[in-house]
Amino acid sequence: MPQNYQQLVSQDLLTEYCYKKAKLTKALENPQSVEFDMLYALVAKEMAKVDPPLIIPYVEFCISAQCTLKCRDCANFMQHYQGKAKPMDLEAVKSWIVAFVESVDHIMTLRLMGGEPLMQKDFTKLFEFVLTLPKIQHIQIVSNATLVPKDDLLALMANNTKCSFFFSNYGSKLAPKYDAIVKHCLDHGVLVQSTPADISWFDMGDTHDRHLSDEQKAVVYQNCPNNCRHVWNGEFHHCPRSAHAKYLGLIEMPEQDYVPLLELDSATRRERIRKMYDAPFIEACNHCSLSKEELKLVPCAIQVTTQRPKATSNKNASTKRSNNKRK
Ligand code: SF4
Ligand code: SF4
Prior knowledge:
The protein is α/β, with parallel strands linked by helices and 327 residues long. Helices cover 34% and strands 16% of the residues. It has helices spanning 5-8, 11-29, 34-50, 90-102, 123-131, 151-157, 171-174, 178-187, 214-223, 240-247, 266-276; strands at 55-62, 106-113, 136-143, 163-167, 191-194, 200-202, 230-232, 235-237, 258-260, 296-299, 312-313, 321-322. The strands form 2 sheets. The protein has an 8-stranded mixed beta sheet with strand order 5-4-3-2-1-7-8-9. Helix 2 packs across helix 3. One iron/sulfur cluster binds next to helix 9.
């Protein structure tokens, strides 16, 4: 014979239910209570497991390869454009940003860079647009401090903790207005991150094939101090070398090494972006000198018109160094 209700639902079960309901009612009645907080913590824990958000700690967007300098050892391969870099296409760059932002839940830092982004006549328009995107926590503009930021840009950035400048410092010869530009921004209430002058860069070498096995590529990749994530030409790459070498036809890039943002629907884009973070290596590492065996330092921002001096051995190099992942 089927069990009756009392047999199915014991007094203990009823008591436990009433206890939980009482606690829940109390929690919901008082949003300031500890119980309310605990409830939210429990819900958040479950949500993070069942439907994990895609949070991007850092991503950089190259808006144009045009630059005011021609650094021989530019980690981002700008020197390979050799005067063929095109000005920013505002609508194209906006479309890359929209596609990326649409497919993720939150971006902690988004960097806008070039080349030199302040060369672009529509840069303020682009920046104004990016500022309106609520999923972005912080926007940083990367500049080589050779151009004074325009007043309309500074007005948008003034007293706004959502954005900042990062100024690379290539010394008084290449960036004679460095100190004045930094001061000008600070005087306008703009957040500024600056670097010391005369830093050294890692010499990342040219794009020749190092003939590494997959295991060796994985070692190079895992030991890489750079953690970039770079969007260029509508593609999300792990590293700027990968993005620009592919664009310039210098390295043949396998499909899994990048996400063509504009060619995929939002869900597939999201899946591919997430997957990229777990890649064991990328092909660009087979064309890079940023490995323990090859690691050397060079003075920063040597211009292409000068002779290439012998790179300094890492062992004897100055401690003042930068991973030149950026400029
Ligand atoms: S190519 Fe590989 S090793 Fe070189 S900077 Fe990019 S991720 Fe790092
Ligand atoms: S390192 Fe910076 S300043 Fe030099 S060429 Fe590259 S983007 Fe331009």
